[in-house]
Amino acid sequence: MKKIIWLPIILMFLACLACDDTEGEGGGGLQPGNSDPLIVEGFICAAVDDGKPVAIDNDFFQDDPVYIWLSWEQVTGEHQVKIIWVDPDDDIVTETTSNFDSRNGKWITFYYIDTTSSSQTGKWLAEVYIDGAFVRSYAFWLSED
Hints:
mainly beta, Immunoglobulin-like, 5-stranded mixed sheet, 4-stranded antiparallel sheet, 1 helix, 12% helix
């Protein structure tokens, strides 16, 4: 009878030892503030026509213009958006800044960088800031022609 009681305890101990081999997993959540500016949609694309993104992609060639198109909500009033274009060496290539004043809390912005035949190939970033606060970054890849 005593042997039967110890068997489940030993099996549970062995199962706990096996759990130590599990690699990192996890999650979390956060409710943004009610008035925080939000990017509802954002794309890297080849052009913007009539205020809409054209040829949405993340792969471009040297000498291509690369656009970032952003649809904002919760942006009533005056705001400043800054895009920092970062090359594969993590060097800032250029910054683009613009201001807008939204009356209904929605706005669309778009910016572009003209790459050249000597632009560095690899993974680039377009870092998005609003009113001086980092929002997120968008990655794209630049390849040789």
